[in-house]
Design brief:
The complex is a heterodimer. Chain A contains 17 helices and 22 strands. Chain A has helices spanning about 45-55, 75-80, 100-105, 115-130, 145-160, 175-190, 205-210, 230-240, 300-305, 330-335, 345-350, 355-360, 375-390, 405-420, 435-450, 465-470, 495-500; strands spanning about 10-15, 20-30, 35-40, 60-65, 70, 85-90, 165-170, 195-200, 210-215, 220-225, 260-270, 275-285, 290, 315-320, 320-325, 335-340, 370, 375, 425-430, 455-460, 475-480, 480-485. In chain B, helix 1 (about 15-40) packs antiparallel against helix 14 (about 330-350), helix 2 (about 45-60) crosses helix 3 and helix 12 crosses helix 13. The chains are: A alpha/beta, B mainly alpha. Bound molecules: adenosine-5'-triphosphate (ATP) and magnesium ion. Magnesium ion binds near residues 47 and 48 of chain A.
Chain lengths: ~500, ~350
């Protein structure tokens, strides 16, 4: 133990204050070279902030960062890149109308004047081959899947010579298969001597990929431990400060009337390919219908077509007994349909507006928030304060712009808003994306509570554990087709997995 | 290299009011410094140029009233542009919408059956309507067909300019104007009262001030204003919430064009009393109003200040022409430089630059 090499990074009493919160409070720990080091912590614990300090995006208020034992001032991302630090952000930062090569060229200083893309492309292909990061260099970013975008981001960091790679919640946007691939890439990198800092909320991933893990709570380091000498239960307890129950209590299902009836529904995706094909199912009062499937198999389009954001080319959507096929989003919301969208930053919130404004996004036309055309901000504020409190959203105040909240807290705000609108039907896409285990538990209990109150819930998730622990029935989507529908107690994980991979139920 | 720079730069996603004001003032200062090179190149001492400019704008009661008069059309059109910009609708067409207002006013004053006592309200009403309808064309083209708003609103200006030219040289050419391309003079009932012997048509000024307040309330305290703010900052979230982009675009352009139209009514009924060459009617108020709205950072109440500021540049610029013999384009040079620095400074608001602590 005492012949340890100098750690590649040492945080020494890092403090980072924002006007209203101390995001990092005397943070000290070390990261060893050639390892994967996980950062674990509740939403708003300060993980992203600490990494932004390391990457030169934020300036610390006090404390010191040592790189390879040397005191270093990281004044800007440019400086960080120069020092061999690369970062892949929680929300991607690529220019979507440009190609992968062009995105990598952005900010490079040493490209040749003539045919710069050729030079980049060659090196890119070489790097991609070395680490198994395949992505088409000439493809435009908007054409890429989440996994491909991420590989492009990693390539960009590696291209600039990153020795230390920071990944902020890289897996929350990935399919299980893509996560597997990412892990292979990371292992390849570590074998090659690089160091990875990895932020996630998924304890399985921490246990699987990392050598060391540091737990943060409310900006402070709780502990740094070797994954080999700990377990999930201990980690979650350290993180939340209490025992987290992984098994949920649920009453038997009291099925009532059908709330949502879907018949022969078909729609296309943005690229003009069939995304949902001849789908028929119902969801009734007091029931959670889980939709399982690998991401990109029509789930997004399904939730959009049900909420009026996308047109159906054929088939019928009936809600509360009313035919609402191709009705406007407002007409559908008026039937008390709540929607937790998949893309929370793009659809769920308006980043520049305050929490007050965001809390009434769906209900601003209703009393008591407005009378006639006038908004009553006093009532709105009261309501927002309640929401923040009840859903445990960490925010300095309701006048804060939403884009200053941490990723998980944004998600909690959206969930709270949608669930408290007194819905009859909740369409929830990946409701626990980016949530820490404690918050995820809270949200799952909340969905169960809604179900007991007679709400119909359509739960879309690729998290099989979440689906199987919450749903009464499980539908599996593959390439837009329904592979099968099983009752909760009749399904085995293997069967669901087979269906997710494209085998229809009848053939099992 | 970078480490020797004495600065630390970090992101500031939501700049505070003070930051915005400071950055805007710095941008103005930079524009003035840049303009002094223009004076210098002209062989004029920048300091005496700025003295003349200041005197011309604020030097006495007459100068001050002249500044206010220039500020009036900028206030009305600027307030209208704020609401369009707030919804991310890039209305570059206030100039044309303003001219449509002058056409409507001329029609009311000279060709309509409206009795004289009702002419003033009728002019403002029809002026508003004409500007609105003119602005609705790009609104519909953008929201229904996705046609670029900058291009359509800009092109519509040229149509409006030629429409006025056509009218004053053709059907509406005045019989008592010695063959000049003017319409006949407005009857007394269609001329706005002014303060003393100045050109300050106070009624338009009052309309502008009230509109600034109403639009402020509309944007910040009402549901349609909420829709404007949401759609202007994240259209997908607006759609998600069931808002209609088409409806909101039409509403903002209706108000935006209408305000410019009323600015035109004020100019023609308060100052010129006849339809004449568009470049004499407007002096590019519709374009300057873009800068006015921009400098106000899309806050309708701040437009009151920024319109006054640009009013001063116009009247001070007049004085420069007279006392120092500078070419009349000098105001355009000013406006251009100010807009240039304002837009250039936009990015600075989102970053914090500090001296590095050792
Ligand atoms: N630019 C900022 N200005 C003000 N407050 C901020 C800013 N960035 C983050 N915060 C606050 O600092 C705290 C820590 O945020 P951070 O984003 O680091 O959390 P996190 O651990 O990454 O959470 P999550 O898991 O939800 O992404 C939060 O309370 C957040 O609201
Ligand atoms: Mg984060």
């Amino acid at each position: 133990m005492n012949q340890k090499t100098t750690p590649i990074i040492r945080f020494d009493s890092i403090v980072k204050r924002f006007p209203d919160v101390v995001a990092n409070d005397e943070v000290s720990f070390s990261v060893e070279e050639g390892t994967v080091h996980s950062l674990l912590g509740e939403n708003g614990a300060g993980k992203t902030t600490l990494m932004k300090v390391l990457y030169g995006l934020y300036q610390k208020n006090s404390g010191t960062i040592y790189l390879k034992g040397e005191k270093t001032d990281i004044v800007s991302p440019m400086k960080a890149i120069e020092l061999g630090i690369g970062m892949v952000h929680q929300h991607f930062k690529l220019v979507s109308n440009h190609t992968v090569i062009e995105n990598i060229a952005l900010g490079l200083t040493d490209v040749s004047m003539t045919r710069p893309t050729r030079q980049i492309e060659r090196k890119l292909i070489e790097l991609a081959g070395k680490y198994g990061l395949d992505v088409e260099p000439r493809a435009k970013i908007w054409q890429l899947s989440a996994g491909e975008k991420q590989r492009a981001e990693i390539l960009r960091a590696l291209y600039r010579g990153a020795e230390i790679l920071i990944l902020d919640e890289p897996t929350s946007v990935l399919t299980p298969g893509e996560t597997e691939r990412l892990f292979n890439v990371l292992e390849e990198m570590v074998t090659g001597g690089k160091t990875v800092i990895f932020i996630t909320h998924k304890l399985d991933e921490v246990m699987k990929i990392s050598d060391q893990v540091t737990v943060l709570r409310e900006g402070r380091v709780i502990d740094t431990l070797a994954t080999a000498s700990t377990n999930k239960r201990e980690l979650s307890k350290k993180m939340v400060g209490r025992e987290v129950l992984f098994d949920l209590e649920r009453d038997p299902c009291n099925r009532g009337e059908d709330v949502l009836e879907v018949e022969g529904l078909t729609t296309y995706n943005d690229k003009g390919v069939i995304a949902v094909n001849d789908l028929s199912f119902t969801v009734c009062e007091g029931e959670i219908l889980g939709v399982a499937g690998v991401a990109g198999n029509g789930q997004r389009e399904l939730s959009e077509v049900l909420t009026g954001l996308r047109g159906a080319t054929s088939g019928k959507v009936v809600i509360n007994g009313k035919d609402l096929t191709n009705a406007t989003p407002r007409r559908i919301a008026d039937e008390r349909v709540a929607h937790v969208p998949e893309d929370r930053i793009k659809q769920g919130i308006v980043g520049e507006l305050t929490l007050n404004d965001n809390a009434i996004l769906k209900s601003y036309r209703k009393r008591p928030f407005s009378r006639g055309i006038f908004l009553d901000y006093k009532k709105v504020r009261e309501w927002t304060e309640n929401l923040i409190e009840e859903f445990n959203v960490k925010a300095p105040g309701t006048d804060t712009p939403a884009n200053l909240l941490s990723g998980g807290n944004i998600q909690k705000l959206i969930l709270g808003r949608e669930v408290s609108s007194n819905p009859r039907l909740i369409i929830a896409s990946h409701p626990t994306y980016g949530l820490d285990v404690g918050s995820a538990e809270q949200i799952r209990n909340l969905l169960l509570k809604q179900r007991e109150d007679g709400v119909a819930v359509l739960l879309i998730s690729e998290n099989l554990t979440e689906i199987t622990s919450l749903s009464d029935r499980i539908a599996v989507l593959f390439e837009g087709n329904l592979m099968g529908m099983v009752e909760r107690d009749q399904a085995t994980r293997e069967e669901i997995g087979m269906m997710m991979a494209g085998t229809p139920l009848e053939q099992l | 290299m970078k480490e020797y720079l004495p600065f630390e730069i970090s992101e500031r996603p939501n700049p505070s009011g003070w930051v915005i004001i400071t950055v805007s003032l710095l941008a103005l200062l930079s524009a003035f410094i840049a303009a002094s090179f223009v004076f210098w190149a002209y062989g004029t001492n920048p300091i005496s140029a700025y003295t003349a400019l200041f005197d011309g704008a604020f030097g006495g009661v007459y100068e001050l009233l002249e500044t206010i008069r220039r500020a009036i059309p900028l206030l009305l059109a600027g307030v209208g542009l704020v609401i369009a910009f707030k919804a991310q609708f890039w209305n570059i067409g206030a100039e044309g919408q303003l001219l449509l207002g002058t056409i409507a006013a001329t029609w009311v004053a000279l060709f309509s059956p409206v009795p004289e006592p009702l002419m003033v309200p009728a002019m403002f009403f029809f002026g508003f309507l004409a500007g609105s309808l003119w602005a609705l064309v790009p609104a519909v083209l953008k929201s229904k067909l996705g046609i670029n708003d900058v291009i359509t609103t800009l092109m519509m200006n040229y149509i409006a300019i030629n429409l006025v030219l056509f009218l004053v040289q053709g059907p509406w050419k005045g019989e008592k104007q010695w063959g000049f391309p003017y319409s006949d003079n407005f009857p007394d009932g269609a001329q706005l009262g002014t303060i003393g012997s100045s050109n300050v048509h106070w009624l338009t000024l009052v309309i502008g001030l009230v509109a600034a307040l109403l639009i402020y309330i509309l944007i910040n305290r009402t549901t349609p204003g909420y829709e404007i703010r949401v759609l202007g900052s994240n259209p997908s979230a607006g759609r998600f919430a069931g808002m209609s982009y088409v409806k909101t675009s039409i509403m903002v352009m209706f108000i935006s064009g209408g305000m410019a139209g009323m600015a035109g009514v004020g100019e023609i009924a308060g100052v010129h009393h006849m339809l004449r060459n568009p470049s004499e009617l407007s002096l590019g108020y519709g374009y300057t109003a873009i800068i006015v709205a921009w400098l106000a950072r899309k806050n309708p109440l701040a437009v009151i200040l920024t319109a006054f500021f640009f009013g001063a540049i116009f009247s001070g610029g007049d004085a420069l022409k007279v006392s120092l013999g500078l070419p009349f384009q000098i105001t355009d040079v000013f406006n251009g430089l100010i807009l240039f620095f304002l837009i250039g400074s936009e990015i600075l608001m989102n970053y914090k630059i500090e001296w590095r602590r050792s």
